[in-house]
Design brief:
The complex is a heterodimer.
Chain A: E1 5-17, H1 27-34, H2 37-51, E2 61-73, E3 77-82, H3 88-95, E4 103-109, E5 112-115, H4 128-138, H5 143-157, H6 172-184, E6 190-194, H7 202-217, E7 221-225, H8 229-235, E8 238-243, E9 246-252, H9 253-266, E10 271-273, E11 283-293, E12 300-309, E13 317-324, E14 329-333, E15 347-355, E16 362-372, E17 376-389
Parallel strand pairs in A: 3-7, 3-8, 5-6, 6-7
Antiparallel strand pairs in A: 1-2, 1-4, 8-9, 10-11, 11-12, 12-15, 13-14, 13-16, 16-17
Chain B: E1 2-4, E2 10-11, E3 17-18, E4 20-23, H1 34-39, H2 41-55, H3 64-84, H4 94-121, H5 123-128, H6 135-143, H7 145-161, H8 173-197, H9 201-214, H10 227-233, H11 237-250, H12 257-282, H13 285-288
Antiparallel strand pairs in B: 1-4, 2-3
Helix pairs in contact in B: 2-6, 3-4, 3-7, 4-6, 4-7, 4-8, 4-9, 4-11, 6-8, 8-11, 8-12, 11-12
The chains are: A alpha+beta, B mainly alpha.
């Protein structure tokens, strides 16, 4: 029955025209890029798609979404899973009408609220109170509606003492709480959420998850994109997996997650190259190569990162979080506390060396964060690099480790003596 | 192309109806959809209010800048054109006469420049949230109205100082201000939409504004031109505004009715064309900006 369908998408596709090779800001770079591996690969894939009888594209086009057809029932909580560059963000942008599809159509029944980013439209020079109204209006709320929910928003964000302080003086945690609070009190029939839960402290994440679950419980439809598979499992009932712009799996959330995790382990994920269609902020991560050296329990993870500077920026820094296969963060590495990457060249190579703690055998994912002064996120590459530990950190151990005992094995000694 | 059709609504058991939105590939012809903009008028005002709040933050002189710009302009014009150049000023003291032209001109120049840059400055909004894109440039021009009001108060004081008392004619200033608004927004829409693809706009607009200043009868009266050229000259919409301001406020012995009519016509054409161009360019904003 069409009355119960909140979102019906048929044959959605989005093609991007690539004007030039991004990141080529000088003639020399442009020439170098012409002969780069990425260009050759792109040419090869274009030839291949032509041979398959697909849409006859030039080398300079890229389909970031292809033949995507799905229905979401009203009241459903629907997860969208996929690697960086799989087309998740493009899909959300089309559904929230920020960009238009190249092919296909979508019929949406109900008011749509989209949270593609927390704090969109916040102005640092305005106070918390002023930003609540501004941000609320940008997200589509009426002034009376904001005024009615004002106290609730402030209580949720826990910023009542700082309401009349400019938000540029807020800590990053306060800023995020306030921004999420405004968005969370939008009461759309359909809520589109992209990765906002990846921010903030654990307490706050829990609060956000709770809020989203209660939104879902009120009979609203939620579309949720996240790399945090545990969060997807907690919130969503059904899901789909996107890969290279196409739906590769659709159905119950557990089935999709299992498929995604299995798929992720099949391919080589020791290196990552930024998709050509991805946004390029002032400084961005272009390429990551990883390798492991050493032997348990003293293994070292090496990450060689190429960063591209596209616009002037303040000194940037990178941090790395290590996640388990389900997306649960295990530990972080922060080699510099302050910005150490200047904007004096169009490209920088950053070499990170991370001494791994004694990890149990298994697959681990890295999430790389690039930003300024711990608070300003510029670029994040999540779950793109995976490494596998084969040996136990405990020499000589042959029986398997189980995740319910944890991920680390602490070096330990024990003695035994008879008590007389 | 996305259309909301409240007529085609699904029944909502909770009462009220759910809007149905269709999202399809862009069509060639894009309607203005002014109703959607009207529905979001609160957003337009919030954006204008934000611009006003933020504009003079961390400046030592604050909102005085709104007044100082036309005042300095008038001082320079008085010295170079009034004194040295000996340019006539419709029988009114040159300083007052040129300031009367500079008040609406500064409003126009600010509105045009700021709306032309408004989309690029709001790239983050364009990429992350949907709302009628016209709200951004409209809100920006709206925010410069406050500057106009402030400098207009100074103009009134300046008039009284020179013993010029406004008559009932002064009421014409209101529709003339609307004409200046229309012109600034019309030209601003063209450049705002162009600026998303061509960042050159940022460099072109200041040059254009400078040229436009001298193509408008601010430093000199349009009566310097032969009468048969004067009406043609009013194709520049600011000609009608400036001549109209002087006629309405200073009782200048001119009859700018024909000029104002021509100016209104061009301003409307530029605005309508700009709005349609903006709407058709709008669909690629998020991909290009």
């Amino acid at each position: 029955m069409t009355g119960d369908i909140a979102i019906a998408a048929v044959g959605l596709g989005k093609r991007y025209e690539l004007a030039g090779t991004p990141g080529a800001d000088s003639l020399r770079d442009a020439l170098a890029a012409t002969f780069s591996r990425a260009t050759v690969k792109r040419a090869a894939s274009a030839v291949a798609s032509f041979a398959r009888g697909d849409y006859p594209d030039g080398v300079n086009t890229l389909w970031s979404l292809r033949d995507v057809t799905f229905d979401v029932a009203r009241g459903e909580t629907f997860g969208i899973i996929g690697r960086n560059g799989a087309g998740k963000s493009t899909l959300l942008k089309i559904l929230s009408r920020i960009t238009q599809p190249t092919t296909g159509r979508v019929r949406i029944v109900g008011r749509v609220g989209s949270l593609l980013e927390v704090g969109t439209g916040f102005h640092p020079d305005l106070t918390g109170r002023e930003n609540i109204f501004l941000n609320g209006a940008i997200l589509g709320m009426r002034r009376t509606e904001i005024a009615r929910k004002f106290d609730e928003i402030v209580a949720f964000a826990e910023v009542d003492r700082f309401l009349d302080t400019q938000v540029k003086h807020y800590s990053s945690g306060m800023y995020l709480r306030l921004a999420f609070a405004v968005a969370a009190h939008l009461e759309p029939d359909i809520l589109l959420v992209d990765e906002v839960l990846a921010v903030g402290d654990l307490e706050f994440q829990r609060k956000c998850l709770g809020k989203m679950s209660s939104v879902a419980g009120e009979g609203r439809t939620v579309l949720f994109v996240s790399h945090n598979l545990a969060a997807v499992r907690a919130i969503c009932r059904s899901a789909m997996v996107l890969d290279a712009g196409r739906i590769v799996r659709q159905g119950a959330v557990d089935d999709c997650l299992a498929y995604y995790v299995a798929q992720a382990f099949e391919e080589d994920a020791s290196r990552w190259v930024r998709p050509v269609a991805a946004e390029r902020p002032a400084i961005c991560i272009e390429r990551i190569e990883s390798r492991l050296t050493g032997r348990q329990p003293a293994m070292t993870l090496h990450l060689d990162v190429v960063l591209a500077t596209n616009a002037p920026h303040r000194p940037a820094l990178v941090t790395v979080d290590i996640h388990d296969a389900a997306g649960v963060p295990l530990f972080e590495a922060m080699p510099h506390l302050d910005g150490f990457i200047p904007d004096d060249a169009s490209r920088h190579l950053v070499r990170l060396t991370i001494s791994l703690p004694p990890l149990v055998p298994g697959h681990y994912f890295i999430k790389m964060w690039l930003g300024i002064q711990h608070t300003e996120t510029i670029d994040v590459v999540d779950r793109a690099i995976r490494f596998e530990i084969h040996d136990s950190p405990r020499p000589g151990r042959t029986h398997a480790h189980r995740p319910d005992h944890g991920f680390l094995v602490a070096p330990s000694v024990a003695t035994c003596e008879a008590i007389p | 192309m996305a259309v909301s059709t409240p007529g085609d609504s699904a029944d909502n058991p909770l009462g009220g109806s759910r809007p149905v939105t269709l999202i399809e590939p862009p069509r060639r012809w894009v309607p203005l959809d002014l109703r959607e903009l009207w529905d979001q008028r609160e957003l337009v005002f919030f954006l204008a209010w934000r611009d006003i709040k933020v504009r003079y933050k961390q400046t030592a002189l604050g909102a005085s800048w709104a007044i100082l710009q036309p005042v300095f302009g008038a001082v320079i014009f008085t010295v170079f054109f009034g004194r040295l150049g000996g340019i006539p000023s419709d029988g009114v003291p040159y300083g007052l006469w040129s300031f009367t032209g500079l008040v609406p001109w500064t409003f126009f120049a600010q509105g045009l420049t700021q709306s032309a840059n408004s989309l690029v400055q709001s790239q983050n909004l364009l990429r992350k949230v949907y709302f009628p894109r016209l709200a951004i440039p409209v809100g920006t021009v709206l925010s410069t109205v406050l500057d106009l009001v402030l400098s207009f108060v100074v103009l009134l004081a300046f008039m009284l100082y020179h013993g010029v008392v406004p008559t009932a004619r002064a009421i014409w200033v209101l529709p003339l201000a609307v004409l200046a608004f229309t012109s600034a927004l019309g030209v601003g829409l063209w450049f705002a939409a162009l600026s998303v693809r061509y960042r050159d706009v940022r460099y072109v607009v200041p040059f254009l504004v400078q040229f436009w200043l001298f193509a408008t009868p601010i430093a000199y009266p349009s009566s310097l031109l032969a009468p048969r050229w004067q009406t043609l000259y009013a194709i520049n919409p600011m000609t009608g505004v400036v001549e109209g301001f002087r006629w309405a406020l200073l009782g200048a012995n001119t009859s700018p009715a024909a000029m104002i009519a021509v100016s209104t016509l061009t301003a409307l054409l530029v605005l309508i064309g700009g709005a349609f161009y903006f709407r058709s360019a709008e669909r690629t904003f998020a991909d290009l900006v």
